[in-house]
Amino acid sequence: MNKTSQNTPAKGVLTIENLSVSIASRTLINNINLAVDAGEVLCVIGPNGAGKTTLLRTIGQDLTPDSGHISFYQQPLTRMAPRARARQLAVLTQHNPLTFAFTGREVVALGRSPHSTGVVIDDDICQAAMAALDVSHLAQRLYPSLSGGEQQRIQLARVLAQIWRAEDASTSARLLLLDEPVTSLDIGHQHQLMQAVRAFARTDVAVVMTVHDITLAGAFADRIIALKNGECIAEGSPHEVLTESLISHVFDTPVSIINHPQTGKPVVLGATETGTTV
């Protein structure tokens, strides 16, 4: 088993040291160490209840850890003023309820609220973010009338717009947190969204995202961490983490893993796909 090291991680845009979180005496994540650099996409995988969302919520300051430290560009995240943090750190949660009759364009424009860059710049950024997610045609549609997948892509355009430009941040560092962003999307839009996130990371943005589709994580991540029962079981490249023995252990089910014939990336096949008797 590729057990992750508990050594202090190297300094990056995001550095997490010995992080533990519990609620009502129940430990949700335990002693997590992690570092993510600009331009890197880190995918977090694990079964339901493994602590994936808890980890993202703690990084995003929605939950207070019992112990450990979270640093953003080598300074404690808790010391950042909320507006300064919002200019550099954007979060897409699993559920984004919105019933107001905003247009798609107005929802995306909400991402520019922490900034004072003016109407012209903000409009250009919103248009670029919507184009990146292929939702420009939804600009004048009312948000409540959109499908779940269309709403999800509009919401991602919003958080991309929030940290679109490095020059809007007080430092060059930017961090994007995404919690299950592809859940409601069809296969075509799943790949389109992941490609957009991958391209956005290349503008020197550190990305941490939870993903249920392990094969999708393997196709687009630079690194993967696997959580189980709140602990980091493995960390490494897709080929290092996505092994039959480790994934079978993490998810308590037999799997087979093959390499994609075109990309060479690992493809995870479940028991019913391989004919294995469970």
UniProtKB/TrEMBL annotation:
InterPro entries: AAA+_ATPase, ABC_transporter-like_ATP-bd, ABC_transporter-like_CS, P-loop_NTPase. Residues 14-254 form the ABC transporter domain. One of its GO terms (molecular function) is ATP binding. Gene3D superfamilies: P-loop containing nucleotide triphosphate hydrolases. Keywords: ATP-binding, Nucleotide-binding, Translocase, Transport. SUPFAM superfamilies: P-loop containing nucleoside triphosphate hydrolases (SSF52540). Part of the ABC transporter complex HmuTUV involved in hemin import. Responsible for energy coupling to the transport system. PANTHER family: HEMIN IMPORT ATP-BINDING PROTEIN HMUV (PTHR42794). This is Heme ABC transporter ATP-binding protein. It comes from Gilvimarinus japonicus.
